[in-house]
């Protein structure tokens, strides 16, 4: 009987599929017959028009707070980006950017770079979500995907249940995306009636729905961003003049600056209302419209005789997962002059753009002083390392499972690099410092990895010999080798926190002592940037992404080894053995050999039987004057007894900690009258035997060693869960939290204190938390992303 029933269901499914496919073709013919042929429309209204004002004041805030929170980056479902008027008009594409198995690099589809108008995007395979036929109210609402998706949600709101049925709702990042065109919408509506937009979240309010439908019926007139005001334009002209001097030295310095800041959002901190810009390469000089040079990488051949570096206004909504603000001002310009132009040196000729040269910054910029390059990166070290995380991608497990879930970062004192011997050493090692991007975006992984492993081994042996001579007998090998931020720079201490396939970089030493720490010197700092930011192509083939991941293994271990060199020799080996439990045979040989060749004794006298903790304490004390306390939850504006309760949350460990998502954002409403809500982030740190397994991370997990880190404020872009609690109820929350030991009790906890994705008040809570974030940190804040919200 069961077999017959399954057969009937299978036959019915085939019949329905054929019916819907036929309906799609028929619907397509009808659309053309009823509303005319589709063609891109002119929707961008002049900034001063009534249509632009309606879009900017009424429509855009709804789109940002209800649509952009899921549709804003490479990982936006269907490549649909609501973060700009141009992105909305561009529409959707069924191809995934994150496709780790492709044999050949994909064509790039970067907004504002790879096409300049909607017609060009249509040629690149993007389908309209707005009506592109006759511009009548009926056509605009019946022949537009966005309008149909909104109406579908209003007709089929979320079911009245706290947790959505997993068989009916898929929230995994690699889920099958439908991406229906307007011709396919009828079939989509029949097959997935509950999948209207916003997907898997509460419907928007009736008032918001009316605003959007009215706007769509009018043909969806939009406006791009307003141009910069006079104050911003004056500083823009000053900086463009500065970066486009004619001398060879000026051209080379500007190329170096561009290749390090091309993913940052630059702003002029001297104006009252900053505007964000991208630094781009143009064929045209300042004073003329930008003629963008669109290449995969910032160091690819521009194919012009002269490159100009220009400021292009950011035209997309600022979202946290891609936002890296970088301040420019008179002090910054003076600093660049002091680093690169006051020292006496000559530039004989500009380096070319051959991949094997341009992908290796230690060769391409060898004529610039090492000290100047290193200090330029150190001045804004958080921004540089943040580029590893937010730069060319929004997420990526393949590249991020190469780092531990939480570790501290320190830097070698730049005075040590201000030496002709150091520059000569890097010149001698040029052949051993080649980078994977020299093979561009199509790479054969195994053969290239073997070659890079050999060259890294040669480099480390040479480096260890160089250091052995420098620190002979352990002389000077003390905490003095660690940069102290010159007494004022809070970039001297950083914490990196991985959240599975995303990560965060923040100033300060966050949390308790970590399992590992890195110490970055100039060459390592530079190579990581060119590996993971300047040289990484998210559209590259499987081999390119895999070799990048495997190469990062070497660089991570080099940073760890730099830290371990400050410990007694026998402890170095013990720590590495602990950090790389069950490592494969090739990696074990590398650890026991090349990475571990440095044998000079430490110059530090240790007094306990736990030298690593002792060393971390020394570094904490040394760097305390410049270590940012911003994320210390004990600084929150709450009662002392409440802060004590927060300490209990921070102390969660082991398999109990494993129950919680990577990031939980918490809003506590203080008991004190008129006090603003306090925001916190509870971070789960997943423990591993080692982080060198490429594809089977699960087998390396050590669940019993998981722990949590609680911080003040929002840290991370992708909340997995929200909690909302009044300060007076914190004791009850902590008590129930201590009893949360399995999935059932976790769900009970969320029912009491959580704001689930199904909560009728979800959108009001979302607005409140995003508003608080923006008010607390107006320059740094960006909209959060809800693609990781759990359904539990």
Automatic annotation (TrEMBL):
It comes from the Bacteria. Pfam families: CTI (PF06934). InterPro entries: Fatty_acid_cis-trans_isomerase (IPR010706). GO terms for molecular function: isomerase activity. Keywords: Isomerase. This is 9-hexadecenoic acid cis-trans isomerase. It comes from Photobacterium ganghwense.
């Amino acid at each position: 009987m069961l077999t017959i029933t399954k057969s009937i269901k299978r036959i019915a499914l085939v019949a329905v599929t054929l019916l819907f496919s036929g309906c799609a073709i028929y619907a397509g013919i009808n659309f053309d017959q009823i509303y005319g042929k589709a063609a891109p429309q002119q929707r961008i209204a002049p900034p001063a028009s009534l249509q632009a004002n309606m879009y900017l004041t009424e429509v855009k805030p709804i789109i940002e707070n209800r649509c952009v929170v899921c549709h804003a980056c490479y990982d936006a479902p269907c490549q649909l980006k609501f973060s700009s008027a141009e992105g909305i008009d561009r529409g959707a594409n069924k191809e995934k950017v994150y496709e780790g198995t492709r044999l050949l690099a994909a064509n790039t589809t970067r907004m504002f770079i790879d096409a300049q108008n909607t017609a060009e995007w249509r040629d690149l395979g993007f389908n309209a979500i707005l009506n592109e036929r006759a511009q009548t109210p009926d056509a605009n609402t019946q022949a537009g995907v966005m309008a149909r998706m909104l109406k579908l949600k209003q007709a089929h709101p979320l079911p009245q249940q706290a947790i959505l049925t997993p068989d009916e709702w898929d929230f995994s990042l690699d889920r099958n995306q439908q991406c229906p065109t307007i011709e396919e919408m009828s079939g989509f509506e029949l097959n997935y009636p509950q999948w209207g937009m916003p997907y898997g979240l509460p419907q928007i309010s009736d008032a918001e729905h009316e605003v959007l439908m009215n706007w769509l019926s009018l043909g969806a007139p939009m406006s791009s961003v307003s141009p910069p005001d006079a104050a911003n334009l004056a500083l823009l002209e000053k900086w463009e003049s500065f970066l486009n001097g004619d001398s060879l030295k000026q051209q080379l310095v500007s190329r170096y600056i561009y290749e390090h800041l091309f993913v940052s959002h630059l702003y002029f901190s001297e104006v009252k209302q900053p505007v964000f810009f991208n630094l781009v390469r143009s064929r045209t000089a300042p004073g003329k419209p930008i003629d963008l040079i669109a290449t995969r990488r910032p160091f690819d051949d521009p194919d012009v005789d002269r490159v100009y570096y220009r400021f292009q206004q950011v035209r997309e909504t600022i979202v946290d997962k891609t936002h890296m603000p970088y301040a420019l001002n008179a002090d910054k310009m003076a600093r660049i002059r002091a680093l690169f132009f006051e020292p006496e040196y000559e530039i004989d000729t500009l380096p070319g753009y051959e991949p094997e040269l341009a992908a290796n910054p230690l060769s391409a910029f060898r004529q610039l002083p090492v000290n100047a390059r290193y200090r330029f990166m150190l001045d804004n070290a958080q921004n540089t390392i943040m580029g590893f995380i937010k730069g060319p991608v929004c997420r990526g497990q393949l590249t991020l499972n190469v780092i531990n879930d939480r570790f501290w970062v320190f830097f070698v004192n730049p005075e040590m690099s201000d030496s002709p011997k150091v520059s000569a050493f890097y010149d001698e090692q040029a052949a051993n410092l080649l980078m994977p991007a020299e093979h561009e975006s199509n790479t054969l992984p195994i053969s290239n990895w073997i070659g890079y492993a050999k060259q890294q081994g040669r480099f480390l042996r040479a480096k260890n010999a160089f250091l052995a001579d420098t620190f002979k007998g352990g002389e000077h090998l003390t905490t003095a080798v660690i940069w102290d931020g010159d007494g004022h720079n809070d970039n001297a201490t950083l914490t990196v926190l991985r959240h599975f396939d995303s990560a965060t970089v923040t100033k300060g030493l966050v949390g308790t002592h970590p399992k590992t720490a890195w110490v970055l010197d100039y060459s390592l700092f530079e190579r990581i940037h060119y590996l993971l930011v300047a040289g990484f192509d998210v559209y590259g083939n499987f081999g390119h992404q895999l070799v990048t991941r495997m190469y990062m293994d070497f660089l991570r271990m080099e940073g760890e080894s730099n830290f371990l060199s400050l410990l007694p020799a026998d402890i170095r080996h013990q720590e590495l053995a602990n950090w790389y439990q069950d490592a494969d045979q090739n990696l074990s040989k590398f650890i026991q050999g090349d990475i571990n060749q440095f044998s000079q004794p430490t110059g530090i006298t240790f007094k306990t039987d736990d030298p690593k903790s002792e060393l971390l304490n020394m570094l904490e004390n040394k760097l305390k004057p410049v270590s940012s306390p911003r994320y210390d939850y004990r600084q929150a504006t709450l009662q002392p007894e409440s802060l004590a309760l927060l300490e209990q949350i921070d102390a969660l460990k082991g398999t109990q900690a494993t129950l919680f998502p990577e990031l939980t954002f918490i809003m506590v409403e203080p008991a004190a009258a008129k006090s603003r809500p306090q925001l916190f982030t509870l971070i789960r740190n997943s423990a591993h035997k080692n982080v060198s397994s490429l594809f089977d991370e699960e087998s390396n997990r050590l669940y019993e060693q998981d722990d949590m880190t609680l911080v003040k404020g929002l840290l991370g872009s992708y909340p997995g869960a929200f909690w909302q609690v009044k300060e007076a109820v914190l004791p009850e929350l902590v008590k129930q939290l201590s009893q949360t030991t399995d999935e059932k009790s976790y769900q009970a906890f969320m029912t009491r204190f959580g704001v689930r994705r199904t909560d009728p008040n979800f959108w009001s809570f979302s607005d409140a938390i995003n508003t608080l974030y923006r008010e607390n940190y107006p320059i740094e804040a960006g909209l959060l992303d809800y693609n990781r919200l759990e359904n539990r």
